[in-house]
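As a warm-up, study this chain.
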Amino acid sequence: MSDQPEGAARSAGTFGANDDLCLLSMRQQSALIRSREISATELITAHLHRIAAVDPAVHAVVSVDEERALAEAAAADAALARGEPCGPLHGLPAAVKDVHDVAGLRTTYGSALYASNVAEHDDPVVARIRAAGAIVLGKTNVSEFGFGAHTRNALFESTSNPYAPARAAGGSCGGTAAALATGMATVCEGSDLAGSLRNPASFCNVVGLRPAAGRVPNARSGFGWQPLSVTGPMGRTVDDVGLLLSIMAGPHPAMPLALDADPAKFARIDPADLTGVRVALAPDLAGTVAVDRQVRAVVASQASILAELGCIVEDACIDFDGADEAFRTLRSWTLAYLLDDTIRRHRESLPPSLVQNIEEGQWLSGRDIASALETQARLHERAAVFFDRYDLLVTAAAATPPFPIEQEFPPTIDGAAQTSHLDWLRIAYAISMTGCPALALPAGFTPTGLPVGVQLVGPHREERRLLAIGRAFERANAAGRRRPDLAGLARRGLSLIVNPD
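Now compare it with the structure written out below.
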């Protein structure tokens, strides 16, 4: 591994001089284009080269739209030369999670049942990103239908962790997180129900934000009045995430819970002064969830960083009683509705764990669902009371470091048996049940070099303050500047191409 965020690829003969561009921030890439030090065509070409060199070892990008991307880059360069107004993402390379539609591009939802599906329209967030000037290079790998925390499916190769290719990248945004970590894309979005933005960020040493419900349109969910699944940004830095949130956020006519606050407030956020900020530290939610001891150690060590920044750090946690059962009820209910036709027609083609979750949802009563919704409301209220006393809750972003890629989920965590693919996600979906925004960002590495992320949770709808705190933390903790061994990944990918067995 290299601790250098830029230039790590120069030692590999398969990389060109422009590849350093791929790990620059959104603002840095944009400034180079606007000053005409580089063209959008050069930037897009560099990213296409990075995909060709690295993705055979990572399997993060499942569909590439090279011809259209280069045509749009040429058009972006021509527009700039004519002096036309340019959007904030003008010419920047984007990748879209393969559960979100991009007009004219294959969208499979991680399922072989949709292997040949080509979307007719852009999803709302995709339309906003493209309208801001970003150029979609392709789609990133997901778990089947996006319901799973390990990016594997029956259609594509499982996404490998760029820091340890024999291990998982997390999910369901694992392809997105791996693409960001390796510089295959810069503008990336995703969705989060049980941690799909947060655990891949932890596994791949990038940043993921689960915003408050209604902040970003989520047309895919089909549950406009149920705020459990949200859409949000990912990036290599907190600043990138804030800038992208300013593009993605804002009301939408299809979303009854949409927030009407001006999204421009997220476009530039300075690091917060953390003097006197009241922090509740709970690496394992006060012992209520199993968290790997190495992860606990890394998260606990952040207390000294926060204290040095002026925070008042105490051991405390929200009361999450009832969150587990209520979340599983609402998730199964959602699955049973969304995939009802799919399970009736293609039951044998679906993963057993997904079939089980769908069938659990089919047996739910109205009373079961109402009880879960009541618990969700109570958790929201408890969180509001908690944040009257504290400004920030700090936990692990994922309960374990990246686990072996052949496993569906870790069988044990710190001696505690994990009996299903949901058990190890408790630390993420407990936060989902409160409706509070949560920011996952790099915190450190295990002794063997596996990434560990920290989860910063703030009061409801306070994403701007949360991002400002995240920027201050990020500046004090250099873990996010450590990048994968790109040259090693390129050699590994070339070996896999030459020797596919």
